Amino acid sequence: MDQEKVIVIDFGGQYNQLVARRVRECNVYCEIYSYKTDLAQIKAMNPKGIILTGGPNSCYEDGAPTCTKELFELGVPVLGLCYGAQLMQHVLGGKVEKAPVREYGKTETFVDKSSALFSDVSEKTIVWMSHFDYISQVAPGFKIVAHTADCPVAAAECTEKNLYAIQFHPEVLHTQEGTKMLHNFVRGVCGCAGTWKMDAFVENTIKEIREKVGDGKVLLALSGGVDSSVAAGLLSRAIGKQLTCVFVDHGLLRKDEGDEVESVFGPEGQFDLNFIRVNAQERYYSKLAGVTEPEAKRKIIGEEFIRVFEEEAKKIGAVDFLAQGTIYPDVVESGLGGESAVIKSHHNVGGLPDFVDFKEIIEPLRNLFKDEVRKAGLELGIPEHLVFRQPFPGPGLGIRIIGEVTADKVRIVQDADFIYRSEVDKAVAEYKKANGKAPAWMPNQYFAALTNMRSVGVMGDERTYDYAVALRAVNTIDFMTAESAEIPFEVLQTVMSRIINEVRGVNRVFYDLTSKPPGTIEFE
Ligand code: XMP
Predict the structure, then answer these.
(1) How far apart are CA 425 and CA 437, in angstroms?
(2) What pTM was computed for the model?
(3) Would 112 disulfide with which of 52, 145, 269, 507, CB 3.0-4.6 Å?
């Protein structure tokens, strides 16, 4: 796609993907590359601007990630953030050293409003600082344009060369006017027109798919997750019946989920494609019978998926393309930013089918972040309940049922989970109606799981000996760490009493308080 681009050069900081996302929120396309990327390659991409990210090192130490002086002489505006700011100063002749006072957290900063970076920013603004080193002396030609009580150079600029250095992190939301600053850089300093919009992406991608595929055939494994659903929507709009989607119902989906996917992508739905639903429930249950070890269960579920998919592919015969729902974070995390991504394995287990006859992989979403995938999904008319659905693991309820999986246990966890999600959704909707915003306790992911524990209870006058359901709800930013969410007690009590009354085989409900670490979000 021929469009204006900003390049984010990655120095190993934790917020690097966030920088790129924020730039894209300014409707400017951007890509992340390692600091090791060749200067010639960067030049060849003809960027409108370059952003150097933060990183954990000290730029004056031997072996620290670095860049050459020539990077600043391309005639392209450069913005350095945190480590990137220090590195810019260090390389261009300024001085960076250990700061007398470490700055960490929200910090009051005084900015020079005449700087292009701070146009429309308040003179006194709160920013997010996180640094041990500081710029004690700016490089020749630079002017200081922001400071804090402890940091004499919170920002500096050399307008003549369009070079900007910011010690803090405008990309994190704690920096109150950070988005404005990034907007000022990419739209103001770099002069980007802001043409990166999802309607244009959808339109252009449909054209590209048509050109690439010609009259070829495409096969896609549709899981009903956000990524594969949006990929299916795009491909369908581009090539219609040349696309075949295989949807494997492994009997480990949430309540009614298989039918929901079918109602959107099946013959009655709004998309033109060949939809094959394989009801493989029994096959999975019999493979899983007697298996209790979590990794063994995951492996069986993943491998069985490949086998079912292969069988369907064989019936279809040779295809030209195998489509994948790879998205940009997968590309970046594989460490191959800009190059070809490691092929994403279905369900993150098992790997690619060995016996599917295809010539090429097609990945229509490989440049998109998750929130962009969602926007594209809405553009394509995919229903909101699919576009905004919670993360759901490939092995499905198989890893939310501790121990052996049986059809009866699947029924229990499906029904309990449905009640739990409905009640939480209802409480959130009521709160939003009354307060105009989501509650602070609003979890990112919440679901029921089935413990493998049975205990004695009493119902009516009868003794029971039934299962305990566990409720999980977490607040998380990146799913690498998570806190248990504080769902109001009365909501939990309603859920408990509905589950015990409505789901046969359950007589106890637990709420999981464990954070991650030490727990994981899923149970197995
Ligand atoms: P854990 O349990 O590792 O989960 O704390 C972190 C996030 O990843 C999801 N998850 C998976 N997603 N395939 C997936 O596609 C999997 O095998 C898988 N296991 C966990 C989990 O739901 C949570 O959002």
Answers:
(1) 14
(2) 0.89
(3) 145
